[in-house]
Amino acid sequence: MNAPTGQASPFLSMGPSSVMIQQQQPMNYMMGDAPAQVQQQVELSPMEQQLNQERLHLLVSDLLISEKREAALAELSKDREKFAQLAPTLWNATGVMTALLQEIVSVYDLLQPPTLSASASNRVCNALALFQSVSSHNDTRSLFLNAYNCLLAHIPLFLYPFLNTIAKTRAFEYLRLTSLGVIGALVKSDDVEVIRFLLSTEIIPLCLRIMETGTELSKTVATFIVQKILIFQIGLTYICATPERFYAVSTVLGNMVNDKPSARLLKHIVRCYLRLSDHPRAKDALRQCLPDSLRDKTFDKHFQSDQAMKRWLLQLLMNVGDYASYHEFMKN
Ligand code: TRP
C-alpha cells in the first residue's frame, strides 16, 4: 500500500541535542534519532564489546529487582545508543517488558487529579525511552505491536492515558512528549501495519487535541504523526471518510496556521494539507477552507528559507485550483 519510499523523515535532522536544549532536562525521547538500523555503533574492540554486553545484561537483569530498577532505567536510557542489542535483549529477557509496563501503569493513579512529580515523570519517561527503543528496532517492532502474549498485546495503548492528560506542568508535558516520541518512532518505520494498528485506535483525536493545546514541540510531533498516517492510502481514506473527520483535522490545521507556527511545524502542516488535497472530496473542501495566510505573504520568510516547503505549498495551491495565489507566489 503506497509505501512512501525515499521520504526522509523530517525528524532525522533534528538531533536529540536540539530537543534537550529546548527542554533543559535530560530528555529521553528520541524523535531525532536515526532509525535503529542505520544507527552507527561506535567502533569497539572485541574486549570492549564483551564488557559492553555484560554491562547490558547486568543492567537489564537489574530491571527485575525493585530497589535497583530506578537506577537501571536511568543508565539504560542514557546509554541506549551504546547497546546495539538493547531492544532484542529487553524483549527477550523474561519479565522485563512486564516490569516496564508496570512502571507505566503505576503512574496512572497520578494522572487524574494531576499529581505526578518531576522525579516520577523522569522515571516513567526512562521506561518509555526503552519502549521507544523496542518500537523502533526492526527485529522487535512488529512483536511490540502485536505481541503473541495477550498481556503484552498492543502496548502502545498503554501510552494513551498519558496522551490524554491535559495538565500543563513540566512533568506532564514531558510525559506526553515522550509518549508521542514512542508513537513517532513507530510511524517513522513507514510500515503499513503500524498505520493499520494505529487507525484501529483513537490516535487521531488524541493527536488533534495535542495539536490544539500542546506546546510547540508536542504539536510538531503530533502533526508529524498525522502526516505520516495521511501518507498511506488507508490513512487518507480513514481521515476523509466522513465530513466530520475531515473538518476536525482541517480545523485544527487551520488553527495552528493562525497561531504563527515555527517553520518546522509549518512544514508538517503544509505536508498534511498537500496530502489531503490528493483526495477528491477533501480537495474540493480545501478550496473553501484553506487559510488565507497560506495563500498570501504571511509566511514568505519561512518559504524563502525553505524551498522544499515552498514547492509543496505551490503544489497545494495548484491542486486546489487557486491559480491566482499560485501566480502571486511565482512572481518572486
Ligand atoms: N471514533 C472517531 C470517529 O470515528 C475518531 C475521530 C474523532 C476521528 N475525531 C476524528 C477520526 C478526526 C478522524 C479524524 O470519527
UniProtKB/TrEMBL annotation:
PANTHER family per record: CCR4-NOT TRANSCRIPTION COMPLEX SUBUNIT 9
Gene3D superfamilies: Leucine-rich Repeat Variant
Any one Gene Ontology BP term: mRNA catabolic process
Superkingdom of origin organism: Eukaryota
Record's GO cellular component terms: CCR4-NOT complex
Protein name, UniProt field: CCR4-NOT transcription complex subunit 9
InterPro entries, A to Z: ARM-like, CNOT9
